[in-house]
Amino acid sequence: MPSRAEQGFHSDMLAGVQRLKKEIGYNPTRFNQMVAEHGGPETVRLLLRGRDASDGFTTLWEHGRLDMSCEAIALLPWYQDLFSADELAVARHRLLEHNFDVDGFNQKASANPPVWWKEAESS
Fold first, then answer.
1. How many CB atoms lie within 10 A of CB 116?
2. Cα 33 to Cα 39: distance, rounded to the nearest angstrom
3. Staple 95 to which of 38, 40, 100, 121, CB 3.0 to 4.6 Å?
4. What confidence tens digit (pLDDT) does each residue in 15-41 have?
5. 57-97 pLDDT, tens per residue?
6. Are the C-beta atoms of 79 and 72 separated by less than 8 Å?
7. Residue 50 in contact with residue 44, Cβ under 8 Å?
8. Which pTM was predicted?
9. What does the alpha-carbon distance between residue 16 and residue 123 come to, in Å, rounded to a whole number?
């Protein structure tokens, strides 16, 4: 059975796709297929193993929406345990290479963590 973090990450990937469709008219078809086949966390692990960033990453960068990239989401404190140190380093490197403020993003996001993570942190 998937952990709460795995379930949350998968849900966030699906919600992000819907949000991107609405906000910038982007429908990441191949990403959707991968998430349906492998689940959110494993899809992102596969993408982080690639030598280069995906076409979707480039599209998000072009629209100024790297905050919605799976690289940025993977670096959130409540999801970091789902990924290896190498995978997180790749995610951070890709974002920094495109002038994305990873630390600022995490600081802002940490002001509103998911309920399940707040509960786990307090126990």
1. 14
2. 9
3. 100
4. 999 999 999 999 999 999 999 999 999
5. 999 999 999 999 999 999 999 999 999 999 999 999 999 99
6. no
7. no
8. 0.91
9. 29
